[in-house]
Structure formats: C-alpha cells, structure tokens
Amino acid sequence: MKINLCRAGSAVAAVLLATAWAAAGDFGRGVYVLTSTNNPSGNDVVVFELNTEGTGSLNMVNMLSTGGNGGGASITNAGILQFNYGLGAVANYGSNTVTQLVREGEFIGIGQTINLAQGCLKPDSVALSRNQLYVVGATCAETHAWPSGQVDGPVVSLSDHSAAQIAVGNTWAAVTMASGSLLQLPLTWRGTLSGTSKSIPLQMDADSVPLGEAFWGDILGFTPAHSEENFAIVNNGVEYPIPGTPFSSGQAPCWVAKGAGNIWYTGNSPGMAISIFFSDGQGGAFYKSVPLPGSPTDITVSPDGKLLAVIYSAGGEAYVAVYSIDGYGDLTAVATSSSVGVASFNGVAFSE
To answer: What is the DSSP string of 128-193?
Structure first.
C-alpha cells in the first residue's frame, strides 16, 4: 500500500500594451521569481522581485490573472509554470489552456491564451525550449510551436491519467506518472514529440510514485517519491537508483532541479528540506540536506545556475525562498518572501 508522503516584435508589443505589468527595479535588469496560485476559481501568476544586496529581499510586485482557472494539479505535479528566453508559460488545469507570459525589459505581462489540442484535458505541467512548448495533462502530451502556440506535430495519447511532469532532453522527453511509471517520448529532428511513447522499466525499489524530473543533456533525473531509493537517473533507457537519507526519517524527495555540472537538487515535502545529490552517468550519491520551515511543492535553478528557488507552505501560508549556489553546489539563504495571503503555490521559475 502506497502512502502519499508528498504534498501533493510588433505582435509582442501589442500583447504587452493590453496586459497588466509587473514593474521592476530602477537599476539594470531585475531578477524575478514567478509562481502560480493554481486557484480553481481564477489562476494568478505571482511575481516577486529579488534584491540580493545587503540582507536580501523578495518582494511581491504584482499578481497577474492568467484568465483561466487552476485546480486539481496541486498534489502530485511539478513544472506547471516555466520561463525561458524572455517568454514563459503557465498551465490552467481547470480551463484546459496555457497562458503565455512575456517579458520585455523590466516588465512581465500576460500574453496570449493557448488552447490544447482537441481531446486533450487538464494540463498540469509544461516545458519550454527556444522553439517549442510541451504540455502534458490527464489525457495527452503535446507540442506547440513557440511562441505562436499552434499545435505542432502529433499528439501522444495517455491512457493513464496520472501525469505528474513533462521534461525535455536532447533527443527524448519524459513524463513521470504518479501511478508508478515513467514514459519515454522520442523527439523528431525539429524537437517535436514524434507521437509515440514507451514505458521505461523501473526497478522495484525505485518505481514508487515518480513525480519531479529534470534533464542533464539526455540523462534524466527523477524522484521515486515513496521509495527508499530517494533519487534515480535514467541513461540510455536504464535506471540507476541513488539512495539518499533514510526513509524512516521522513526524507522523501518529490521535486527535482538540475544544478551546474553533475549536481541535482530535490525538494522533500515530508522531510521539509532540500537535498543535494551528485551523479555520473551510472549512479551517484546523496550529499546533504538543508532544512526548510515548511513543506516544499516545487523547486528550480536559475538559468545562470547561481540561484535556487523553492516554494513551500507553512502554517497555512505559501512562501518562496531563494538561495545562492556556490562553486561546490552548497546553498546559502538569500531571501524569503512574506505571506501574500495564498495558502499554497504551484510551479516556480526565474526570469533574469
């Protein structure tokens, strides 16, 4: 019996003029951390500005309505919000849409609404490359040309409705299924999903509730969240489990972010911690854990690899914490947001 341990150009200019803005700082290009409320009655993107000078601060500068509804994807999903190359995307689980996010200079705003492919429902995770948007939900995994948003290539139908996250490597994409499986989705030369998938064999001790995932080239790291094998990598279709802190201590990594080199970071919901792992192509080792004051629900590393952000809940309120990453992969606390009246966040991303 499995016990749930995890908590769960011109066109752009025209779009920007029609949206609400999140104003940034006065000097230089600001660093922002974005997350979503995933509210079933109206999803919002919360924009925080990071100041690393002095004691550091993380202040909310705006809350932007996506125009869609959240809901349903808050327990066993990750990556519902992503940002890459000045554009972002956030899934609206309850509206079967994805909302585009746009950054121009010191402003972040809401762009177009992207509809899912016909028959595809309940999106709960997205991934971005320079030219493609990838979306997975209850019934499909699909590719959209980016930033136009048009469906691009064949749709992969899913008979299992428990998709937790989609992540994309060099030649293949992966979908973790909370029911206990991991899907390999080959990519075409254009970077679109080819329309096929197959299940990757998982070892008995590392097949329990796969949730978070991230790629290192074509090597996938993922968390079998309810297993004593706290972390695992997949290389050339072969899984290599990596033990972590003892399961009895409550350390069950659920979410994953890729750091520099061979470093991986996981968010442990029941253990209220961030764990650090190192790997090569055929295994790895647990390094250490950094405690959190609450239970994390997603984690990310900045594009330059120098910052880590984690969202967590404590005392009925949601928070964002940012850490600096040194040359050895160790973490130092920089700033934590104040409460903004939201009980939980879903998805987290940097815009630099």
So the answer is: E-SSEEEEE-SSEEEEEETTT--B-S--EE-S---EEEEEE-SSEEEEEETTTEEEEEEB-TTSSB
